[in-house]
Amino acid sequence: MKNRIFFFVIFLIQVSIYSQELNAQVIVNSDLVNQTNQQIFKTLERSLNEFMNTQVWTNQEYLNQEKITCSFIFNLTGYSNDQFEATLQVQSERPVFDSNYDTPIFNFLDRDIVFSYQEYQPLFFNQSSFESNLVSLLSFYAYVIIGLDGDTFELNGGSNSYGQALQIVTLAQVTSRKGWKPSDGTRNRFWLIDSLRSNTFREYRQTLYAYHRKGLDKLTTDPLEGKEALMEAIQLLDPLYQRRPNAFLLQVFFDAKVEEIVNLFSEGPKVDFKTTETVLKKIAPFFGSRWKQIKA
Asked: 181-204: per-residue pLDDT in tens?
């Protein structure tokens, strides 16, 4: 009896340590596909949800309430003979300390989605080999999401997960599918993970940490201090812009944060927003009309 209790305790410890990290929702939208039998799309959606929500990606401990909320929306544009074409919208968020607000972390559109899938085909992730383009796509974004989440809690806290994402990109070089190679475009999976790991773009990760831990997480206890920290965090991106005005990660940051920044600085205690506004208009001119809406 004692032995059974001992092994049960060990089992519980292992489950606790190696717990699933993601609370993912996968949607397969087939509205644009002319296909009378919709069952294959429903089966695919169930299979992808099961894969993303049962796979253990790291050896870190995640409690249920700590799982990272994220979504994967496949908008199918073509289907024939088990071949799928689509775009993929990937989003993630994390809770803000001592509040009921979830802040967006990642909002990325991948247009180079082509994969093969047979109904009821099992999906397996192998860290040391390329299994399929579909598995590699999902696994890559899982590690990017975990890495970005880690960066918001600890300075450079996502490095290990970015390393795993890079490994997936490296293994995917064997496929002819687009998005994995530097020659496939300027804003694809290769350049995303290359930029995240590059010291050239270090201010992006510094901003993620300062914006969330020093800014957002302080808003409940001290709104004025929190807003001032948010402004300082945004201004950290200016040196990155000076070095690389067309940096991929600037677009990635503001695609996720534009709505939040407008809302945060249009409410609450008044701050001197002029310097930050000037920086925003310079480094993110593609959202110029939105910055004009801020009434700080």
From this structure: 999 999 999 999 999 999 999 999
